[in-house]
Amino acid sequence: MNRGALRYYRLMMHGWNSTHGKTLAPRGAILIALLVMAAALACSDRQQQTPAAQASQNPQAPAVPQQIASIPTSAPGTSAAAPPQAAPSAAKPAVPAPQPKPVSAKAPTQGAGPSLSPAVVAKCLAAKGVTMYGDFRCPHCAEQKAMFGESFKVVPYVECGTPGKPMNLANQAPACRDLGITKYPTWVFPDGERVTNPQSLETLAEKAGCKVR
Predict the structure, then answer these.
(1) For the residues 153-179, what does the mean pLDDT come to?
(2) Which of 33, 56, 94, 124 could make a disulfide contact with 12, Cβ separation 3.0–4.6 Å?
C-alpha cells in the first residue's frame, strides 16, 4: 500500500479538530478516505507496470523493441552442418568422332594406254632425223633430258653453249647461230617444223610420226 495514502487515511479516521479538540470519524470522511486510497493504489500499480504491459493497454503508444536472442543452430563442440550441394548435372553423351570416308581408287581413264618407253621414242626420233638444240647451263634442257634418262644419248643433240663464256646469242656455237636458235631447248623436225620448251614423249613421237604403241 502507498504510504501517503495510508497516512491520509489515518488522518481522516482520526482527524484532529483544532476547534473542538476531539477526534471525529464521520461516515462521509471514511468514504472519502477509501476513494482516495483506491486512487493511490491504482496510480502505484500503474507505475509498477512494465513498458510492455502499458503498451498493450494503450494501443497508441509506440511498441518497445525487444531483443530476440539468437538460437544456436548446433550444439557446442559440434561443427555446423554443411549446406546441401547441388546435384551434378547429367553428363552429356559423348559425340562419336567422325569416321574418315574410304577413298575409292579411281578407275583408269578409258582409252589411255601404257606410257611410252623412253628408249623406243629416242630410237624413233633418231631414225626420223629429229634434233634437239640446247645449252648445258639451261635448266629446261636438263628437264627435257631427264624425261629420256639414259636413252637420251641416242637422241640427236647439238650443244649451243660455249664453255667459259656467258650464255648469250653472241657466244653460240656456229651450228645454232646459223639456224637462228634463240630458245632452249628447240626441237627441229625434218620438215622444218620447230618446237621450243620441254615436250612430252607422246608429243615428240606424234610430231615425228613414230608408231611406238
Answers:
(1) 94
(2) 33
